[in-house]
Amino acid sequence: PYKYLAHVQMPPAPAGECDQVMPSGDSLQSKVAQWLELKRRGTNINDRLRSTKGFRNPDFLQSVVEHFHIQECGSLFPTHVFDPKGYGSEDFYDALASAQRREAERKEKEKRER
To answer: How far apart are the C-alpha atoms of 94 and 27, rounded to whole Å?
Structure first.
Protein backbone atom coordinates (compact mmCIF):
# COMPACT_ATOMS: atom_id res chain seq x y z
CA PRO A 1 0.00 0.00 0.00
CA TYR A 2 2.86 2.41 0.69
CA LYS A 3 3.98 2.41 -2.93
CA TYR A 4 0.65 4.00 -3.85
CA LEU A 5 1.12 6.76 -1.30
CA ALA A 6 4.19 8.02 -3.16
CA HIS A 7 1.88 9.31 -5.89
CA VAL A 8 -0.59 10.98 -3.53
CA GLN A 9 -0.28 14.74 -3.29
CA MET A 10 -2.16 17.23 -1.18
CA PRO A 11 -4.11 19.77 -3.21
CA PRO A 12 -2.98 23.38 -2.89
CA ALA A 13 -4.51 25.45 -0.11
CA PRO A 14 -7.51 27.44 -1.25
CA ALA A 15 -6.93 31.11 -1.93
CA GLY A 16 -8.45 33.58 0.51
CA GLU A 17 -10.64 32.82 3.48
CA CYS A 18 -13.83 30.82 3.81
CA ASP A 19 -16.89 33.05 3.55
CA GLN A 20 -19.31 30.42 4.90
CA VAL A 21 -21.57 31.77 7.65
CA MET A 22 -22.87 29.46 10.36
CA PRO A 23 -26.49 29.53 11.61
CA SER A 24 -25.26 31.39 14.70
CA GLY A 25 -24.12 34.26 12.43
CA ASP A 26 -20.42 33.59 13.06
CA SER A 27 -18.16 33.01 10.12
CA LEU A 28 -16.86 29.48 9.75
CA GLN A 29 -13.37 30.93 9.32
CA SER A 30 -13.50 32.61 12.75
CA LYS A 31 -14.83 29.41 14.40
CA VAL A 32 -12.02 27.31 12.93
CA ALA A 33 -9.49 29.94 14.02
CA GLN A 34 -10.99 29.84 17.54
CA TRP A 35 -10.80 26.01 17.65
CA LEU A 36 -7.20 26.05 16.39
CA GLU A 37 -6.27 28.59 19.08
CA LEU A 38 -7.84 26.41 21.77
CA LYS A 39 -5.93 23.40 20.41
CA ARG A 40 -2.68 25.42 20.40
CA ARG A 41 -3.27 26.23 24.09
CA GLY A 42 -3.67 22.50 24.82
CA THR A 43 -7.45 22.44 25.20
CA ASN A 44 -9.00 19.19 24.05
CA ILE A 45 -12.34 20.07 22.43
CA ASN A 46 -13.74 16.55 22.94
CA ASP A 47 -12.90 16.57 26.65
CA ARG A 48 -14.39 20.04 26.98
CA LEU A 49 -17.58 18.92 25.24
CA ARG A 50 -17.84 15.75 27.34
CA SER A 51 -17.62 17.79 30.54
CA THR A 52 -20.64 19.98 29.70
CA LYS A 53 -23.95 19.38 31.42
CA GLY A 54 -25.81 19.13 28.11
CA PHE A 55 -23.57 16.32 26.87
CA ARG A 56 -24.34 14.22 29.96
CA ASN A 57 -28.06 14.62 29.30
CA PRO A 58 -29.51 11.19 28.29
CA ASP A 59 -31.67 12.91 25.65
CA PHE A 60 -28.63 14.58 24.07
CA LEU A 61 -28.27 12.07 21.23
CA GLN A 62 -31.92 12.32 20.26
CA SER A 63 -31.82 16.14 20.33
CA VAL A 64 -28.69 16.19 18.14
CA VAL A 65 -30.26 13.73 15.70
CA GLU A 66 -33.35 15.92 15.42
CA HIS A 67 -31.47 19.24 15.28
CA PHE A 68 -29.07 18.18 12.52
CA HIS A 69 -31.61 15.95 10.70
CA ILE A 70 -29.33 12.92 11.01
CA GLN A 71 -30.55 9.65 9.54
CA GLU A 72 -29.50 7.17 12.21
CA CYS A 73 -29.64 4.22 9.83
CA GLY A 74 -28.56 6.02 6.69
CA SER A 75 -25.83 5.19 4.23
CA LEU A 76 -23.49 7.10 1.95
CA PHE A 77 -24.04 4.50 -0.74
CA PRO A 78 -26.58 5.24 -3.46
CA THR A 79 -29.85 3.42 -2.79
CA HIS A 80 -29.38 1.18 -5.85
CA VAL A 81 -26.18 -0.15 -4.18
CA PHE A 82 -27.47 -0.33 -0.60
CA ASP A 83 -30.79 0.87 0.77
CA PRO A 84 -30.86 0.68 4.59
CA LYS A 85 -34.60 1.24 4.51
CA GLY A 86 -35.11 -1.55 1.99
CA TYR A 87 -35.39 -4.32 4.56
CA GLY A 88 -38.71 -5.95 5.35
CA SER A 89 -39.95 -6.09 8.94
CA GLU A 90 -39.05 -9.79 9.03
CA ASP A 91 -35.34 -8.88 8.70
CA PHE A 92 -35.06 -6.97 11.98
CA TYR A 93 -33.61 -8.58 15.11
CA ASP A 94 -36.89 -8.84 17.01
CA ALA A 95 -38.61 -10.65 14.16
CA LEU A 96 -35.57 -12.89 13.63
CA ALA A 97 -35.45 -13.74 17.36
CA SER A 98 -39.15 -14.55 17.29
CA ALA A 99 -38.71 -16.81 14.26
CA GLN A 100 -35.78 -18.57 15.96
CA ARG A 101 -37.84 -19.09 19.10
CA ARG A 102 -40.76 -20.55 17.10
CA GLU A 103 -38.39 -22.87 15.24
CA ALA A 104 -36.78 -24.04 18.51
CA GLU A 105 -40.23 -24.67 20.01
CA ARG A 106 -41.29 -26.62 16.91
CA LYS A 107 -38.16 -28.78 17.08
CA GLU A 108 -38.67 -29.36 20.81
CA LYS A 109 -42.29 -30.37 20.21
CA GLU A 110 -41.20 -32.72 17.40
CA LYS A 111 -38.62 -34.29 19.70
CA ARG A 112 -41.21 -34.88 22.47
CA GLU A 113 -43.70 -36.48 20.05
CA ARG A 114 -41.21 -39.15 18.91
So the answer is: 46
Beta bridge partners of 21: 27
Find out whether 84 and 73 touch, Cβ atoms under 8 Å: yes
CA distance linking residue 20 with residue 29, whole number of Å: 7
The pLDDT score that the predictor gives to residue 1 is 57
Report yes or no on whether pTM surpasses 0.70. no
Query: Which residues, listed in sequence order, are joined to residue 27 by a DSSP beta bridge?
Result: 21
- The whole-angstrom separation of Cα 101 and Cα 114 is 20
- pLDDT of 56-68, one tens digit each? 888 888 888 898 8
Q: Region 79-99: what's the mean pLDDT?
A: 89
